Amino acid sequence: MAKQTMLKFTDVPRLMPEKRAAEARTDDFDEIYREFADEKAKEQSSRCSQCGVPFCQSHCPLHNNIPDWLKLTAEGRLREAYEISQATNTFPEICGRICPQDRLCEGNCVIEQSGHGTVTIGSIEKYITDTAWEKGWVKPIAPSTERPESVGIIGAGPGGLAAADMLRRAGVQVTVYDRYDRAGGLMVYGIPGFKLEKHVTERRNQQLTDGGVELRLNCNVGEDISFEEIRDTHDAVLIATGVYKSRDLRAPNAELGGIVRAIDFLTASNKTGFGDHVPEFESGELNAAGKKVVVIGGGDTAMDCLRTSIRQGAESVKCLYRRDRANMPGSQRETANAEEEGVEFVWLSAPKGFTGDEGQVTGVRVAKMRLGAPDATGRQSPEEIEGADYTEDADLVIKALGFEPEDLPTLWNQPELEVTRWGTIKADYRTHATAMDGVYAVGDIVRGASLVVWAIRDGREAAEAILARFDNAAASIAAE
Ligand code: FAD
Ligand code: SF4
Ligand code: SF4
Hints:
37% of the residues lie in helices and 16% in strands. By secondary structure, the protein is α/β, with parallel strands linked by helices.
């Protein structure tokens, strides 16, 4: 029976959902991939060979039951596919859109390894849950019983919200504190709409608040409320604050106007997309329109800045990266999308300093590089080619050099909160418990800049550990 429906990878070629043409998609911030039509989703699911040991599943951080939901989709049993998909993933439609599948599930699909092209797992995951939303199968959280315990979660990104969802389903009283005016963390203010449209995150926020999760927004812990107060108010605390300190560039004239941080640029763009009044965007300071833009960096944040600049109407958009295409950290799929949209990549190029006029940047002094011997990690180190410097014209330079954690023990006056030498919070890798009793930590603030799917996994695991703590405490009271 299974063989009739499945294993069609030799007959059915791999197909992604239709991608909008570059000229059309650069006019707006809408997602670039359209939804699969029902028949196409069925057909693509039927390519799966139903592996006995599914490598796709073992390389998914959430260990999603991929072969089962593919088979159910191929058979047209979408509601059951949705039930299985949502059992292991709090936000399947978000992961389906923005996981780097080529490095995770799809990159490890055996069909890909055998040269037939991977099953398009991410797009099918998105299709299943988007359909579930459309059909009304995604229900508000309705705990069968209310529990007396409360948890304070600091940070409304995917890590904090995944934990909030699980705790609330178990009947726990949950308050999420966030310094931003909207919940979602980097899913709302970092990642642009052309990868993840804002309504997708917004409807999840609504689902949480409809289910009784209290969101306390515009509340900066350490300023508007102290960490002690949160700890005193709740039975357990979860820190999910992400990493926001931008790595900087030390180079001559780096303080010139027009040299900005990626997170500021992207946040301004995302807020503008919501219709908010953003003075730095309106003044042109954080707006690429009509400018020669140079983005420094080769990761996913750099890709997002490049493609945002194109959509804002920049005159030209270039990416400087000190290694070559094969050695860049950003996703190859996103790089190809950026190129289609008109971004020019200047490989093996590193900024050495900036030129300016009346306090404003006019260019980037660029050192040309070559790749030398591999370092201890096996990665080839870039070396400067003497005498090959030149100036790249620029009137907006965006630094996308990565993020580091803020110094939370100092900011919150909590010296017992142990951190690693990189400043990330030390937490048990399974329970996510920190050195402070009843305090847990998840997501980027523990891992360093990572992925939404890992934050979701951490948040779900921490919620389980917190529930186990409450159950143990209740059991010992009952035994007394
Ligand atoms: P965050 O999402 O950063 O959320 C932390 C929250 O804590 C924020 O809302 C913040 O306001 C709040 N907060 C911080 N300090 C305080 C405080 N003192 N008081 C109150 N609130 C506080 N990942 C992918 O998987 N796919 C992608 O395509 C992708 N693209 C990315 C693009 C960009 C530009 C960036 C920057 C990141 C991208 N990532 C991507 C990474 C991903 O967004 C993060 O790994 C993920 O959001 C981390 O989740 P988190 O819950 O740990 O933290
Ligand atoms: Fe793949 Fe991410 Fe979905 Fe896991 S959560 S199946 S890695 S897209
Ligand atoms: Fe199907 Fe590929 Fe996963 Fe095997 S590895 S179960 S073929 S999706």
